[in-house]
Amino acid sequence: MFDDQAGWGTSDVVSTGDVVKDAMRKEQIIRDIIAHQEDLKVLLERVKTLEKDTDKLTSGNATLQMYIDNLTLQMAKRR
Q: d(Cα 39, Cα 45) in Å, to the nearest integer?
């Protein structure tokens, strides 16, 4: 059995003595790891997308701020 409290450290695997059960458990663990890796890939892609969106919004905000500053200067010159 695996110790859920082990976290990132190594955990002790207790062999049941049944080769078939041990192999099935190992296969299930490998499938779980692969599934978690896929989930992490999806999350990483989402983070990359959000970073790109944030960069676009930041650039847009800078452009808007420049526009506001220019309008403010024009308004001040008219007075």
A: 10
Q: Are 61 and 68 in contact (CB under 8 A)?
A: no
- Predicted confidence (pLDDT) per residue in 5-27, tens digit: 555 655 555 667 899 999 999 99
Task: Measure the CA–CA gap between 58 and 52, rounded to whole angstroms.
Answer: 10
Assess contact for 15 and 22: CB atoms under 8 A: yes
The tokens describing 68, both together, are 């506001």
- In angstroms, the Cα distances linking 42 to 36, 47, 73 are 10, 9, 47
Query: How high is the pLDDT of residue 53?
Result: 98
Cα distance between residue 14 and residue 25, in whole Å: 11
